[in-house]
C-alpha cells in the first residue's frame, strides 16, 4: 500500500544528509599565518611610531657617512654621538622602511632635535652637502700646519689663514684681551673637528675656531686660579709647551709640575719643544748648536716663558697647567717608546739619558 505522504527516512544520497565541510588544515594554517603577520606588523608599526617619533635634544648637527659604511656602522656612530638611544632602533627601522641600502657617503646636516624617523629620512635621501668638508685638527698643531690641512681641502688659499690669524687684536673676544698686540692667534685656534664649505675664506675659519675656544676652553681658564698667578696668556703659553713635550693627560700634569718646580728656583724651562719652534726644525730633537739659537722662544737660553704659545694646545694640556701634579722632579725625558722618565737631580737625569737614549 502506498503512502505518498508518509514520513520516510532520508535517502543517504540526499543533499540534506551531507555533513558541512570543515576548512582544510592548509587553509587554517594560512589564516593563522595571516593573523600572526598582521599582529607583528601592528607591533612593528606601534613600536617605530613611538620609538621613531621620540626626539633627543641636540642643536643642528653635522653627521658624516664615510665610504663603505653600512647600516650597522652608521647606527653605532649615531648612538656614539648621542643622536639616537640605541643603534638597534636605527638598523631595525631602516630595514622596516626599506632604507638600509640607500645610505651614501657624505656630510649631512641634521635638523635640531630630529627623531629617528627624520634622521633616517635625511640620511636615506642621499642629499649630502657636496661642498661641505670635515677637517680635524689634532692637538698641538701650529697655525701653518692647520693651514696646510685647510688648503688641501680647498677651504682657503695658501698663506691666507696664517695671515688672517696673525693679529689677535683684530678679533673682539674677552679671552684675547691679555694677548700682546704683536702676537697672533697661535694658542687660541682650538684643535677640534670642524665642518667648512669649500672656499670659505680665512676670516670665517678663524672666527669659527675662536668661537669653539670660547665655548670649550674659555670657561676653564676663568674658573681656575693658576699656580704662581699666571695670566691667561701665560697659561696658554705654558700649556702649548706641555702639549709639545708629552702626550698623555697623566704625563702632562706631571710635566706641568716639573716646569713649576723650575719656575720656583729660577731655573730655565729648558724645553726642547720651544727650541724646535725657534729653529723651525719640528719633530727633530735639537742638536747642540740649536740650544744656542738667539730667540726669545729658546727656553734654554732665556729663563721664564717665551712671548706666546708655540702651538695650539688641547684641553688636557690647559687643565694640566691649571692643576699640575706636585712632585720633587726637576727633569724628564721621553723614550723612543713615548715613555716619560722623571728624575729629581741632574745626575739622575744623566743616568736616564745614558740608559734610555
Structure characterization notes:
With 357 residues, the chain is mainly alpha-helical. The chain has three domains: 61-125, Dna Ligase, domain 1 (2-Layer Sandwich); 132-222, no CATH class; 227-356, no CATH class. The chain has twelve helices and six strands. The chain has helices at 25-51, 71-80, 87-96, 116-125, 143-152, 160-164, 202-222, 232-245, 249-264, 272-279, 315-322, 346-356, and strands at residues 61-65, 106-110, 132-136, 193-197, 331-334, 340-343. The strands form three sheets. It has a two-stranded antiparallel sheet. A hairpin with a 5-residue loop joins β5 and β6 (340-343). The longest helix has 27 residues, at 25-51. The relative contact order is 0.08.
Strand content: 5-15%
Low-confidence stretches: 1-14
User: Count of helices?
Assistant: 12
**Proportion in helices:** 40-55%
**What's the gyration radius in Å?**
35 Å
Order of helices and strands: HEHHEHEHHEHHHHHEEH
- Number of structurally distinct domains: 3
Please provide the count of β strands. 6
**Helix/strand/pairing class, anyone?**
mainly alpha
Largest sheet: 2 strands, antiparallel
Overall 3D shape: elongated
How are the strands ordered across the major sheet? 1-2
Mean pLDDT: 86
For the terminal residues, how far apart are their CA atoms?
A: 134 Å
Task: Using brief descriptors, characterize the structure shown.
Dna Ligase, domain 1; two-stranded antiparallel sheet; two-stranded antiparallel ribbon; 6 strands; lytic endotransglycosylase activity
Q: What would a concise description of this structure say?
A:
This protein has helices at 25-51, 71-80, 87-96, 116-125, 143-152, 160-164, 202-222, 232-245, 249-264, 272-279, 315-322, 346-356, and strands at residues 61-65, 106-110, 132-136, 193-197, 331-334, 340-343. It is mainly α. The chain folds into three domains: 61-125, Dna Ligase, domain 1, CATH 3.30.1490; 132-222, no CATH class; 227-356, no CATH class.
